[in-house]
Amino acid sequence: MIGKIKKIYRFLKWHYFLMSNGYDKNKKYYVLKYGIGDTYLVSTLLPYIAGAEKNIVLLIEKNNQRFIPAMFDEHVEVKQAVNLPYSMIAEFGKRATGQPVVLHSDWISGLPLSNLLGYKNFTLIDGYKLMLGLELGLVPVTPKNDAILSEEFVSQIAGYKNPILLCPQANSIATVEPEFWLELAKFLNNRSFTPLFMNDSPSSEFASISFPLSESIPLCNQIKGIISLRSGFCDLISNCSTAKIILYPKIKWYSGSLIQGSGLNAMGLSKGNLLEVEVSDFVNNSNLFKQIEGFLNEQV
Questions:
Q1: What would the pLDDT profile of 17-27 be if each residue is shown by its tens digit?
Q2: pTM above 0.70?
Q3: Are 143 and 72 in contact (CB under 8 A)?
Q4: Within 10 A of 169 (CB to CB), how many other CB atoms are there?
Q5: How far apart (Å, rounded) are the C-alpha atoms in residues 17 and 161?
Q6: What distances in angstroms separate CA 213 from CA 16, 33, 67, 194, 217, one per listed residue?
Q7: E-strand spans in 149-224?
Q8: How far, in Å, CA of 153 to CA of 179, rounded?
Q9: pLDDT tens digits along 155-167
Q10: How far apart are the C-alpha atoms of 263 and 246, rounded to whole Å?
Q11: Angle in degrees, CA 290, 296, 298, rounded to 5
């Protein structure tokens, strides 16, 4: 009996939260609380879900991702997600208008959607299409890539010859040892490229560069190339014009491989200048490095 009373109390508290925070029953509220890639993938589908009524509100938890939706739909309403009662959303929330819906497969009760990843070409973006009630055949929309790099970063990269951005960090997959990246940096340096590590360099021998996420696309458009372990950052810069080399550890990932379930080409995100490589061994790298060098030298 006490348990039922407590649940009724939580239910009333949930409805008080909705009313006191002005949730409109005619609007759809999608909560984006995960990584860069998740926000980017949802944003590529915004023109399909917003429609003429413009009744979509995105509640974004991480403030540095708030600029992403505007690259696809400048009219979409974006708000900072503050103090959302996730325990009550999990208990009482419905995938309905007028209340916050956490847009992620982990929040779909009883449906292990993530397990489909990699199965018969099912990808991350397909999961979001299903969650949004969209047809799987829809092509993700191309972002507006007309942002101009700020003078601060223009001056930072101006002194480097053929700069290559190295991005070793990925939160969702196992990190490759620093020795691989140092070996790659030395290889590039010996071939007239300048390796620049994103955020932090594992060695004082090589420089690093830090920049806000909002500067990512214009910065990447101004350099020779990017070499990155598969991460959400790869989604964000997937359509930039520079040479992009994405490394996928050859691992079992849900019902397929990492490249099958999250490949940029497989998801239709990149329009060119892309080399995706599935790597089974990050120790014997001579063939991989030659492949990288050949691809970089092909780019104008």
A1: 999 999 999 99
A2: yes
A3: yes
A4: 14
A5: 55
A6: 36, 16, 9, 22, 8
A7: 163-167, 194-198, 207-209
A8: 28
A9: 999 989 999 999 9
A10: 9
A11: 105
